[in-house]
Amino acid sequence: MTDAAPPPARPEARSPRGFADRRGPSLIAERRIVQRVSEVYERWGFEPLDTGAFEYADALGKFLPDADRPNEGVFALQDDDDQWMALRYDLTAPLARFAAQNWETLPKPFRRYAFGPVWRNEKPGPGRFREFTQCDADTVGSDRPEADAEIIAMACEGLQAAGLQPGQAVVRVSNRKLFDGLFEAGGVTDPGQRLTALRAIDKFDRLGWQGVAALLGEGRLDESGDYTKGANLPLGVAATIEAFLGSAGDGDRTRAETLDAIARSGGLGAAGEAALEELAGIDRALGAMRVGQDAVRFDPTIVRGLEYYTGAVFEAELLLDTTDDKGRPVRFGSIGGGGRYDDLVARFTGESTPATGFSFGVSRLASALRAAGRTDGAARGPVVVIVFGQDDMQAYLDAVSELRNAGIAAELYLGRAGMKAQMKYADRRGAPAAIMLGGDEIAAGQVTIKDLDAGRQLAAGVTDNEAWKSERPGQMKVARNELVTTVRSIIDASSRMPA
């Protein structure tokens, strides 16, 4: 007799790092942001566009850090025709491919917006995922500073549409050409060295000058033990960059005053002088659109990490206080960004095609709002119709259909648990009410409705609205034909209750 084969090993139920499982409230929050921001984009005259999740790796380009191989920085696979495909790391590179592929038939400038998931094969961290949702708007085919200013102004309106009040976020603006001028003046000509330096400067708000100085030099060992190779800039160039970053000031300057401070820092060269002219043009357009100095600031420390930016760059920063699940302060920083990328379409066509755009990090913004206690209202579950037995199933189905036809989210309990467990289920679903149709109620043409919202508020110790409490008996028996109006009154009353 042979021994029985051991049972197969069970896999451990676990999520890959940087990939989050999201339930109702998180998904609803993201969908609200996408819907509201998309409405802003359409109102500003941008048309929707959807491109595929995969692009050929050479079409995406190697614009992310550590992208020397096809599967570094992105998630890639080789197709059956031996071509490398990669999941898109943003929505801008696919737009450049689409514009080049369809340029002859597109209205010019081409104004489009897009939203959807993107993927980056990088180290995850707090609020930083390998899969996240973006919502972009771009103008391809205009080199006017007004195009940049319009994108910036629209981003400000989008932030408010997403749920932020004035003063709770700021869009910081700079120009990559400022650093081109500094590098030229310092004799730094190697593109790789320049890019490494820019990515170091992009960490200025998080690492401070000491951390950036290490990355501009030989390199830096971070708290996790990972070593990042530095740019090895000459000491004189690093000192010039330090003085230049100091021209950012403390945020009290107007945009024009910041430009004057940058100009006084010196050593900008021809490229830097051109950058100042472009920023001045953006400032004039922002002023004409009545975009306030507090909403948009010029900040020379902004560079953005992606390689393809060629001019103006923008970064939206959350100013709200945020905490983690344990109540500890946490800084989210950037919740969106963009800039001008005049050479991206030219990779395909060989002809310079100016372009500019902005991207909301939807997943990041939703996480930041949640961390700031700004949930935009709790996600509501459906009204739950309790099931007492199979014999009265027609009455239950009629009730749930009547609620749905009236535009009220409702579900019929389809488990096999008893009454107590069903009520617990309804509470966990966040149901505003539970509907009970026992034999006595059916025979009498009545229905019992339990106001679960009232119970939750009482359990939470609500004491600031006595009139509201006195009108909420918690459980009531009404005529069957009053089901919809009674449930709707419960939902409407809850929407008026102070949080």
Q: What characteristics describe this protein?
A:
single chain; 499 residues; alpha+beta; BirA Bifunctional Protein, domain 2; Rossmann fold; 2 domains; 8-stranded mixed beta sheet; 5-stranded mixed beta sheet; 18 strands; 40% helix; Histidine--tRNA ligase; Anticodon-bd_dom_sf; ATP-binding
Query: What's the multimeric state?
Result: single chain
Measured as a percent range, the helix fraction is 25-40%
What overall form do the CA principal axes indicate? elongated
Average pLDDT, rounded to a whole number, is: 87
For the biggest β-sheet, the strand order reads 1-5-6-13-12-11-7-10
State which percent range the strand residues make up. Answer: 15-25%
CATH class categorisation of the largest domain: Alpha Beta
Radius of gyration: 28 Å
How far apart lie the N and C ends? 70 Å
Q: In terms of structural class, how would the helical and strand content be classed?
A: alpha+beta
CATH architecture of the largest domain: 2-Layer Sandwich
Contiguous helical run count: 18
CATH superfamily of the largest domain: Bira Bifunctional Protein, Domain 2
The number of distinct β-strands equals: 18
CATH topology name of the largest domain: BirA Bifunctional Protein, domain 2
Largest sheet: 8 strands, mixed
Number of domains: 2
Poorly predicted regions are 66-70
EC number: 6.1.1.21
Catalytic activity: tRNA(His) + L-histidine + ATP = L-histidyl-tRNA(His) + AMP + diphosphate + H(+)
Enzyme class: ligase
Subunit structure: Homodimer.
